[in-house]
Amino acid sequence: MDLIDDPREGQNSPEFTVTELSGAIKRVIEGEFGHVRIRGEVGRVSRPRSGHIYLDLKDDSSVISGVIWKGVSARLETQPEEGMEVIATGRITTFGGQSKYQIVIEDIKPAGMGALMALLEKRKAVLAAEGLFAPERKRPLPYLPEVIGVVTSPSGAVIRDILHRLRDRFPRKVLIWPVAVQGAKCAPEVARAIAGFNALSPGGALPRPDLLIVARGGGSVEDLWGFNEEIVARAAAASDIPLISAVGHETDTTLIDYVSDKRAPTPTAAAELAVPVRHELVALLDGQEARMTQALSQGLARRDQRLRDMARALPRPDSLLDGPRQRLDMRGARLGPALTAGVQKRKVHLSDISGALRPATLRRSLQAEQRRLAALADRFRPEALGREQKRRLEGLIARFRPDALEQDRKRKEEAFQSLARRLSDAGQRQTQGWHKQIAGLDRLHEMLSYKSTLARGYAVLRGDGGVVTTKQAALDASALEIEFIDGKMKIGGGAAPKKTPKKAPEQGSLF
Hints:
Residues 132-490 form the Exonuclease VII large subunit C-terminal domain. With 511 residues, the protein is an alpha/beta fold. The chain is 49% helix and 18% strand.
C-alpha cells in the first residue's frame, strides 16, 4: 500500500453550487445572444395582475418562452395576440428557478397571420362554400332527450361538470364515448365517435342517443386544433343526431362550432341546453299551483305599482329640506354681524362706565371737595359751633376722606368687573347654543340627504337632464351619468343588457 494514493479520475475537478452553475450559464448565454430578432407565431399569452406579459413564440418544430415586462408592455404599439405572426426583438436570458431559457422582449411587431390561423381560415372558406355552415341545415334540439351521448375525455373535469349539471336539471341516461381531446389522436377518435353513435340502431341492446355533446375544456389554439380538423367538421355535419359543440371556453371558436346544430360557450352550458329544468315541467303539470302563483304575482305587482304611484306623489327629500336650509343660511348670515354688533355695543358701554371711574377724575373731584371744605371751615370755625354742629362737621369730614373714596372706587370697580364677566359668560353660552343648533340642522340635512344612501353602495343614474328610474328610460337616453359617493362618471348611450341564463334551482327544492 502506497503512503500517498494517486487521485482518481475527475477527483480534482472543481465543485459548483447550483446557483453558481446557473449564473455561469446565464452569463454565457447573455454574452453570446445579447441582442436578437426572432420571427415566429404567438402561442399562449398570459397577462397576470402584475402587468407583465408571458407568451410563447413558435414555429412548426420549436417553441421559446418570452416575457414582456410591465414598463415595456405599456409602450408597445402592437399588443401580442394568440395566433399572430410577429418579429420580436430582445435578449436571450435564463431563469435559474426553472432551468429554462427565455427571451426578454423589448419590441414586437406583426409579421403577418400565423400559419395555423391561415390554415384555419382556408378550411373555413372551403366548408362555408360547400354550405356546411348554412343556418337551414341546423336542426332543432329535442326538448327532453331520453339518452344523451357525450364525446369527451373520461378522466377530465368536463364529464363531471356535464353529469353534475344534468343531475341537477333533469337526470337522463348518458352514454360516454372516451376519446383523446388533444394531440394527433384527437381528430380521428372524435370523428369515429360521432359516426359510431350514429351507427347505433334505435331500440337495440345499446340505445341510440337522441342528442350528442362534443365537449372539451379550454386551452390554447394548439390544444384545440384537433377540433379544427376537416375530418371532425365533416363528421359533425354528417351526423343524423342533433349535435351540441362545447369546445373550450366562451372565447374559443373551432370549426366544429360552425357545423354543429348548437354551440355552447362551455360544457356546463351544453348540459343546460340539452335538458330543461325539471321544476318547470312540474309547474306546467300542477295547474292549481300555477294559477295561485300567478294570482299572487299579479297581486304583488298591483301593490308594487300602487306603492310606486304613492311614492311619486310624495315630495322629494330635497324639497323638504329647502325651507330649513334657507332659514339656516339666513340665520348663519345674520350670526356673524349680530355677534360683532353685540361685542361692539358692550365695548362702548364698558368705555362709558370705565370713563367715570378714572383715578384722575376722582382725584380732581376730591381736591375740589377739599377746597370747598376748607372754605366752609373758614366760615364756620370749630370754637364758634356748637357741639351738635361740630359732630356734623366731623361726619362730613370723615365722608370726604381719601381712603373712604378709594374704597368706594374699588367696590364700584369690582362690581363693574363682575358685570363684565357675566356679560362675557352669557355671550359665550348664547354662541354655543347657536353652534349646537347649527350642528343639529347640519346633521338633519346629512340624514335626509341622498348622499348617505350613496355611502351604503347605491348610485344615482341621470340621463337627458333628469333621474333615470326605468330600464327603458336608460335605453332611450343619449348619455348617462352615474353618481357615486366619491364622484360622478359619464358613459355613452344606454344598451340592452346581455341576458344571462337563469340558474337552475337545487334538486331538493323541487319536491
